[in-house]
Amino acid sequence: MTDEDIALFKQMMEWEGQRRAPPDGFPDLPDMPAARYTSKEYFRLECEHIFRKSWLFAAHIDEIPEPGCYMTWHNAGDPIIIVHGMDGQVRAFYNTCRHRGAPVVTEPRGRAPRLMCGYHNWTYKTDGSLVGVPQRQDFGNLDMACRGLNPVRCEAYGNLIFVNFDADAPTLTEWLGPLADEWVEFRFDKIRLAARHSFELKCNWKVAMEANMEVYHVPYIHPETVAPLVDAQRNFNSFYPNGHARMLAPAPRQTDRAHVRAIESPPNWQRIETVGELGSTATQSYTLFPNWVSPLSDYFVPPLLFWPTSLNTTRLELVTMALDWGDGPPPDLWTVPDEAMPGGRQMSQIILEDTQFGEAIQQSMESAGFKSVPLSYQEARIYSFHQHCDKMIGIEQVPPELRVKQVIDERWVWPRDPRIALMRQAGRTLAQ
Length: 432
Ligand code: FES
Ligand SMILES: [Fe+2]
Fold this sequence. Notes:
Helices cover 24% and strands 24% of the residues. The protein is of the alpha+beta class.
């Protein structure tokens, strides 16, 4: 990020703190139908079009560090295997034997130069090709060249491995758009996987995720934890192509930096020196469509991932990535030891605060007492996310009573943003 960009964003945060109404021209956000969180039909459309066509975070290279290492993955439903090939390339396949569908591997992780199905010992190379069929002669003219493991698209951004079920999807780099460059300073090519834990939540995946997509709630449910770090009044949301977004907010003026550093930088964390001024002095939280939210800073890359396991249940993955932490315990931003279960982990205070209402909200949304969701300008990151959900599904395919209106149009998508001119205009007016 250039010095000019940094100066601009700092001005935008100050301008946000001073405005007394939503910016001129910013659209009023129509109510969103509550049924978007409760409709079986909408959930089916999400699974089919959003989770089958988006790039999804699946693994960190530390989980399959050497050639021959593999891991299973099923967060998006279908059973997948991610394989670090003997040729060094990382690939993904359906974990489904081309004979009669048994799993090709059964352990969550392992290492082997070949993958052998346990049912009848069909054997595959790590590039997916079928190389062994016992009693081959009894299959007549079976063409082994056509019976390799079915691939799933798999691409990396630094050390992070993403998958996509759609053969026609754009490349991962195209999908990331401006984020691919903007994230270079966070050293995705160097960060290691420090922690990855899952928890089951009893609410729709969007209910859970949206608790992390605005800072309007921060003073009220996080008075002790996040509020000293984030000035909710001075938060500036940017909308990016492909449904991604960024929130940027400074610490409240009364918070001194020593306090912030004490919370954010435990002693065994290594600072990511390339992170610029905004990442080290403000809180930035990115939405990576569809289900990743991550507050990137100069100490960590800690995505929260929200996987729908049914219409009203969600698997929350809490991941911490950081630069090498030496001999100490790996840093873990989001979980703490579970006192009730030796060796177990439980959600940290911040995550407990953010998830506390999910189940009750889901019950409300399923009741007759809640019909629609009104969102403020500060919550527009949620609205634009819903707009993109409908776009991914295909707006015409969404039943009319479930759609959101596409009111945040391309004019507001970064790097275009009429608010920059408004901010400059306000600055000139003040100077006069
Ligand atoms: S199902 Fe895999 S070898 Fe038969
Ligand atoms: Fe929160």
